[in-house]
Amino acid sequence: MTRFRQVLAVRGMTPLLGIALLARAAITADAIALTMYVVLALDMSYAAAGAVAASLTAGVALGGPLLGRMIDRRGLRTVLLVTIVPQLVFWLAVPALPYVVLLVASFAAGLLMVPVQPVTRQAIAAMTTAEQRRAAFALESVMGELSYMAGPAAVILFAAQASPGVVAWGVGAAIVAGGVGIALLNPPLRAEEEADGEAADRPGRREWLGTRMIAVLTMGFGVAMLLSGVDLAIIATLEEAGQVSWAAVVVAVFGVTSVAGGLVYGALSRPVATWLLLGLLGLVTIPAGLADDWPWLSVAVIGAGLLTAPTLSTVSDAVSRLAPSGVRGEATGLQSSAQSAGFALGAPVVGVAIDVSGPAGGFAAAGLAGLLAALTGYLLSRRSPASSRVSEPSAPAR
């Protein structure tokens, strides 16, 4: 745990991770909050609710690189102001919006979502040394898992006690509070030596968006697609067994083991290549489809859980190392967009597999998506090593 203590001892790191956890928990639950509002308050179908959630997700995916580029050019506080105000207006207005207006406004809200996750990753890259960075990104991935476990559960719990409109206000308040907190903290997004040197000039996109960066973004897309598909396959398995009420237990086991895996990986003395972790994650996901009830399924997802946070952390680490500091905001925005696209595509693809071959087919489709992304990432990262700025960021030093 020495590595983690060193990271948390970095000035500003602990409050940054704490604020990010609050905001990310709300952002993780925003689509669920809108879904419950459409279904319960507007009394419309789940298909209509899904369209609103998809509109929000599409906005987030498109807005990531744009906001990242704006951070690189205009600075953090300018972008936070541009995003916090629209979030405040949108979430306050949600209970008063008719469905069609809500559908359009959700896209705009996604486009201008407070960029908590990309900013946190940029700040970690700027605030830590090369030796600390892997442990720092492991902690960031653990924070992501905790937010995933806490955010949606809190929204569902409070929705049973309060109106969907009030729940939407609460989600919006947490997002705004997170943005304000980061603005007050104003973490550095470039190291001191970068601010004086490399960051002074913004390199052209062709100089940094090469095959190695595309490989990393592809693997980020793949792991998100896998995780989205696993969530759906878990629900399908338990629905077939008549045990849907136990889904929360299985998801909790998955989340806890992911946290444990992230902590173990961050404490290791040597890194593991992203493509290898993702390939292993895909392999251990496929046999989870053999489980046919909640106790066995809880056991079956442990392997995938242990590899999830380490895989996510290596993707973030790789992006931070491959991107020059002058474009790191745009690069982390692209990473968020790739993962948002993966989450959006994973559920329908795996859903088709479940309809065709049952829940086991869902786990197989999710695992194969991870394997395909890992293979693609491996081939791309080895395609033109001489043209890359740095060596493969998640591979052991040679």
TrEMBL record:
Keyword Transmembrane helix on entry: yes
InterPro entries: MFS, MFS_trans_sf
Alphabetically ordered keywords of this record: Membrane, Transmembrane, Transmembrane helix
Gene3D superfamilies: MFS general substrate transporter like domains (1.20.1250.20)
Entry's transmembrane regions: 21-40, 46-68, 75-93, 99-116, 137-160, 166-185, 214-238, 244-265, 272-290, 360-380
The protein, known as: MFS transporter
Lineage: Bacteria, Bacillati, Actinomycetota, Actinomycetes, Streptosporangiales
